[in-house]
Amino acid sequence: MSQTTSAQSAAPARFSDVKGWFWPADQLLFDWFLARQERQGLRGDLLELGAYLGKSAIFLGSYLREDETFTVCDLFDSPAPDDPNSEEMDRSYATLTRRAFEANYLAFHDELPVVVQAPTSVITSRVDSGSCRFIHVDASHLYEHVHGDIAAARDLVAPDGIVAFDDFRAEHCPGVAAAVWGAVATTGLRPIAITATKFYGTWSDPEPARSELLSWLPTRPDMWHGVEEVAGAPLIRISGKKAVAPAAPRSRHEGLTPVPTPAPTAPKPRPALARRLAKGLLPRR
């Protein structure tokens, strides 16, 4: 995620109205991986660590099936657990509130996901081990926290489940890069594909998904791809600068005139000090 200080002030009439950094290439890959799980009959829950205003959560929620659970974990406007994380929250997510997330999500879905308003370090106590078929990690950019998020994802992901890590190559997030590639080197995390912003991998056998993805990508003239060997295995590189996003979730407010949040009323200017003193001292007529 990039830095921001502006707030979304109206109910979203379209998916594109929801602020966030979830680009068409990654929407296409989320759709591809999740639709593949549907075809396979792979059951399991969905998990997102770090939600901002809900753009990727809204998208993920469209793939939730009966008897599955979607959990979102974020601090929202709670205090950060340590000073470095607090400083990062202040710089990047000054407008992040749970109320804004929930309003956005309910514009597209009838029910909220399970919301855990807490540091992501608590997630293994709230979600069952090995239960999640798809995990999206987009929380803290600090190495120590990302390292913990990766350990949690490894514990919570189901067999053949997919994990997606955001900002693994952003210049302002070196801690994410160090933690993700460190996990490739030391924990058995297997890369499948990368885009400009996200890393897609698994702790299971990556070859079936990789082969099917390589069969699908040539059908997408709007996306370039190439393959190179990384850490002893093929890695699919994808450029989606011209990618056309898949069908987006529909807002219940579509076609309605957005109602902006009222601006705060400016305080009435106070009279100058000399005027106030004179008024108090002079006799009344």
UniProtKB/TrEMBL annotation:
**Basic residues composition bias: residue spans:** 276-285
Q: Which domain of life is it from?
A: Bacteria
For this protein, the record's Pfam families field holds: Methyltransf_24
**Residues covered by region (Disordered):** 244-285
Q: Pro residues bias located where?
A: 259-270
- Check the record and name the InterPro entries matching this protein: SAM-dependent_MTases_sf (IPR029063)
UniProt-recorded name of the protein: Class I SAM-dependent methyltransferase
Tell me what organism the protein belongs to: Streptomyces crystallinus
